[in-house]
Amino acid sequence: MKLVRSWLRTARHTAELLQKAVPSPLIQQAAWLEKKPVRIDHFGPDPGRLNMLVYPPSSRQDKTPCPLLILLHGCGQNAEAFAAASGWIALAERLNAPLILPVQSRANHPAGCFHWFRPEDIGSNGREAISILSMIHHACTTYPVDPRRIYIAGLSAGAAMAASMLATYPDVFARGMLFAGLPTNVVNTPAGALALMKKGLPSCTHEYLEVCARALAPSSVTRWPRVSIWHGLADRAVSPLNAGLLARQFLSLHRLSHDMQAEMLPQQAARPEGISWQRDGETLVSLHLVPGLGHALPVDQPLLAASDPYVQSVTGVHAADHAAAFWNV
């Protein structure tokens, strides 16, 4: 009996140690929701009057070159809650990478939207674009960032701004993930932006989409970033037609041939793997249309989705895992 009691005590003690050493997924998710970023007040030129939040690498002692992640929130979102709910904090921790959150000021826009369509805020002379680039430069001089692995993602207005950053600074970014986004630089007024969100651009040519993006870029571009485009087929805020426009825009930039018809997109892209366009075996553009997903980023962890109205639980679709696979990290 003594031997049995001793064994039970040892087993209980071992179980307690294992529970502490390997937290349950629910405990880990709760910890990510509670983690707080560092605010950087002086990060360089800031003509866009944005705020910079950063989650530093989990191990500051490790000087191994690491990726840099940038996540742009959408209208009405809390940047910190979005970073946690989307799984981007967990992804950054897994990669031991810094995560930058550019934050729109309510003084700039009452709903906290990035000005993704205004000529004065996008492009190489754009105020908000310069502010975001300053944050990236600050992170690259503060942490051991591998300049070949800078990845940007965004949702809605954040995705539209991320698309403009990819077009404006193609030599800075390796890849981007765009959720519920819009093609870049095709409208320049609030009325035009609203019409684009609701209806897309009827009868828009590939040439026009490409010219609009190239107008933001340097005169000589040696390469374009790779992009993964995601959109919910149940999105009522931004028409899924914009996902096709965005894909066509980057396909044209990459000089990838395609014969994409808007009416066929749901049948083509509403699959777990989506549609991908490759060159030499490497995916340069991918498009994923998610049935049942509204104006949101998809995750397969309900606890995370419950903490942000623009993050939606979708069984088997976890955006951060797809990001890790697409970024090859």
UniProtKB/TrEMBL annotation:
Coiled coil: none annotated. Its EC number is 3.1.1.75. GO terms for molecular function: poly(3-hydroxybutyrate) depolymerase activity. It comes from the Bacteria. The keyword Signal applies. GO terms for cellular component: extracellular region. Keywords: Hydrolase, Signal. This is Poly(3-hydroxyalkanoate) depolymerase. It comes from Granulibacter bethesdensis.
